[in-house]
Amino acid sequence: AAQMRALGADVINVAEVESGQMLSRCAAALNQQNGMPSTWHAPHPAFEYFMLPGTDTFTRQQVGLLTRLSPLSPLERTSARESYPLKSSGCGALSTNHSSGISKHYMARLRLDLPGKSGATLAVLGLHLKAFPTSPKACHQREAQAAVAASLLAQALDETDYVVALGDINDFDGDECCLDAKRSRPRSWGL
Q: Is the pLDDT of residue 37 over 60?
């Protein structure tokens, strides 16, 4: 919680959450300092936590939202799916067609008060895409999940100019600043 608090963020996406109780504990810890209720966030409101059950039956993990911004509506999720392999895929050969949705995600619409623009909407897509960036099958599935995410983000951009995706994309970043020690490059177009 101290590291999260040090970020100074108003919105935090948490991946690999095992229960609402754990997310509640994170929110409580963010709202305390040295074991006492904190005033560090004054005049801002305290963090609240939100989580929607996902469809991941293997790990049973979810993504959660910690936010000091007020939700404008309940969190949502979609059951939309995308077929794969995608025509533009760089993941390698796959002998059969499949489809995938995003098993761990939410879409939140939060009230964003900006100088001169009170009450704007911030759309937040919190997600956790398929792991194993070097596996061709996982790469294809992650690309299908990214296509579903792209559709959700496009819909959100029709509603507001303030849209962000937060989460674990589970692929390598191809930007020179952010390469890993092996200088791995992304296999999917998930980013």
A: no
Specify the 3-state DSSP secondary structure of 167. Answer: strand
Pick the closest to residue 110 from 155, 62, 159, 63 (CA basis).
159
Helix, strand, coil percent values for the chain (each to nearest 5)? 25, 30, 45
* 84-to-2, 122, 153 alpha-carbon distances in Å: 41, 31, 20
Residue 39 has pLDDT above 60, yes or no: no
The Cα angle at residue 37 between residues 119 and 72, in degrees rounded to 5: 20
Cross-strand bridge partners of residue 49: 66
User: What pLDDT, in 10s, does the model give residues 45-102?
Assistant: 789 999 988 777 777 778 999 999 999 999 999 999 999 999 888 888 888 899 999 9
Give the N- to C-terminal CA distance of the chain in Å, as an integer. 28
For 11-35, write each residue's pLDDT tens digit: 999 988 888 888 999 899 888 864 5
What per-residue string of b and e applies to 155-166 under the rule 16 or more CB within 10 Å gives b? ebeeeeebbebb
* Assigned token pair, 54: 């996902």
Residue 119 tokens read as 């009450």
Task: Classify residue 94 as left (phi > 0), alpha (psi -120 to 50) or beta.
Answer: beta
